Amino acid sequence: MLRIITQQAEATTELRRICDRTSQEEILHKEATVREVLQAVKRQGDKALLHYTEEFDNQILTPEQLRVSGSELDAAYQQISKELLDAIQLAARQVEAFHRQRVPKSWVQFGDDDVVLGKRYTPVDRAGLYVPGGRASYPSTVLMNAIPAKVAKVPRIVMVTPPGPHKKINPAVLVAAQEAGVTEIYRVGGAQAIAALAYGTETIPKVNLITGPGNIYVTLAKKLIYGSVGIDSLAGPSEVLIIADSSANPVYVAADMLAQAEHDPMAAAILLTTDTQLAKKVQLEVERQLHNHPRRLLTEKAIAHYGLIAIVDSLETAAELSNEFAPEHLELEIAEPWDLVEKIRHAGAIFLGTSTPEAVGDYLAGPNHTLPTSGAARYASALSVETFMKHSSLIQYSHTALNKVAGAIQILTEAEGLPSHGDSVLFRTQGYPDD
Amino acid sequence: MLRIITQQAEATTELRRICDRTSQEEILHKEATVREVLQAVKRQGDKALLHYTEEFDNQILTPEQLRVSGSELDAAYQQISKELLDAIQLAARQVEAFHRQRVPKSWVQFGDDDVVLGKRYTPVDRAGLYVPGGRASYPSTVLMNAIPAKVAKVPRIVMVTPPGPHKKINPAVLVAAQEAGVTEIYRVGGAQAIAALAYGTETIPKVNLITGPGNIYVTLAKKLIYGSVGIDSLAGPSEVLIIADSSANPVYVAADMLAQAEHDPMAAAILLTTDTQLAKKVQLEVERQLHNHPRRLLTEKAIAHYGLIAIVDSLETAAELSNEFAPEHLELEIAEPWDLVEKIRHAGAIFLGTSTPEAVGDYLAGPNHTLPTSGAARYASALSVETFMKHSSLIQYSHTALNKVAGAIQILTEAEGLPSHGDSVLFRTQGYPDD
User: Which member of B86, B125, B292, B346 has the lowest number of beta carbons within 10 Å of its beta carbon?
Assistant: First the structure.
């Protein structure tokens, strides 16, 4: 049964517990295994990939089978329904349209004395995209990760995903990859796939940046290789926080909470409401909707451990509690959602009003569904086109301009004890001492 | 003596060696120590900070002495020259002016059927800024890290820096901090300072994001705590790559290479030139300028291990080699620098023409001097106002708009096996099955 809490102090404590639910101890425990996998792939390349694919995914591959072939890619289109293809294409179009908004552009500005300053934006050369297998093999994940890379004009978008039974990969995932502009796909998953992308093997190219969600091994591998290559974020289990007033519909709120909980036994679903009656109705509705739920066991576990309803005295209090939690997804199921938005400081994505279930953003509204979890919204944002780009500062000084600042630079270099820094300006403005 | 290489294959190999000069083994070796420090600070707070400050910095502090007092901050202004204050203020103004360009702004767009999509930008609540002590205690580091945070409107900018002899902190650093808008300063350094910022102690507030350079222990601590809080990057030793043609002045080029080498025995200084005569002159000039260099021993070490001149057949080849290296600083000491810029794909900052020594950007041109090192320019950028901000996606659908996409979402949720995702849309558009 979904708990209802009425004391704010207790709500604060519980929200903190839920936010910190990813166990650091469990992570440390698995680190040795992941380090071993990374080292093996670094040293032995494809050979290690095939070894771990047999060990962890129970699939025996040859090196030639690592790469998904053109005929398999073509065949995927025959294996999904016309309706699913249409839906994937609609989602791809909308996601692409949103990501094309405000793509960073290179710029320069011209100052006094012919000084030129600016920023030049360029895409990474190669992006690696991890797509989980099994229960979490989602075409939407592919779209949300590959489309920003495509919009950023990344020349090579390399996808990895573990093979299922009979070495197969979900055809919907293969179709989504093609629609989203992925340039090559490899049949490998887990920490070994991250290692392959980070170091390169005979078959898989080394990339510059790795994005995409995964299990604890994948996340740990991403953390360990960070610095050799870039990563998007360290994704934890998913979460939704809903702020609702008496205008909210308990049936919708309950469905939205379950839509989060059904992802993962570690997923979190939280409701903060000013309305005690709504709280009780949502509690009953969650039970009712769970009754015949196809993923009941898993979903119930999430609701029991990381589900929560808290009664709050005002929407302002709800906003403050939400800011402390910094949710991945925040739904404002209230009469005037835009009035509360300005009080929200930290949230991955904000869904406003009663006709905006999180699912609309998960699939096709346009904004990215790869969002900061576990409180990371305090400092991080959705995956975006910027994730796949970087900029170089541009600086050009003229002799006149350099002359004007030479004295100040000289004083600063002396204060910092860096004589050649000073000389590099002095020689240009005053000539070489021997001259 | 600075080596000259004439074969391109050898140049490629050497550039790779230099780019990968940070030893992963050395890092692993120190990880146990850093983990222990992090754990101790997490458990014991201030007590652990005082313990490690005595052990590593030889300074015995009371908890009250951790925070730099108002009178010490005031006194710092009396301890530096008027000229240095002026120079710090000039640098602060120019850095701030540059960082005020193109600060991200929140936006919304209105689509068909009353769909609203957008992004809301907000600053982090608290930023932590690490400033090294001893030889590398630089006021410019303070400006370059604190000013973007100030421009981003971060409410609390918390600085940490280790105490020197007699518990003192470089007064120029204290002045720079005040000019740049730092809100509080604590006298603690090393991995223990990073732990304090990440977990909070009785005296030091927990922050959301930690920026700033440091030694190997600081960098390792940043990597380990990443995920609990955000970090800017994992800074390695500094580097410059200079592309020069026959128009370049060997005296300037040599001074610029030494200005990099004098930072650190691990710093790298590379010249790629089409002109054999220039190569020889630079080689001699480096010797000459090293002769009476106040930091000769350290600087010679860097030049010997990570200094290099390579003769290339064309500027295009130089650009390609530079892209493979992805330098932190790139100087184009060539007749037509803007013609080559478009061939540069990866570089932290690009300095164009003969009157733009790197030092002008290090101190006061405006762009940030905190730049990606060790090849990280392939995926990362300069520290910027964006580093201290994050965005929330905004999504609002109307009932009409939701109706139009309900079918497509339904098909996608079925393909992904997530029934409550489907229900959350179905209940809103078709009503509850029991109704």
Answer: B292
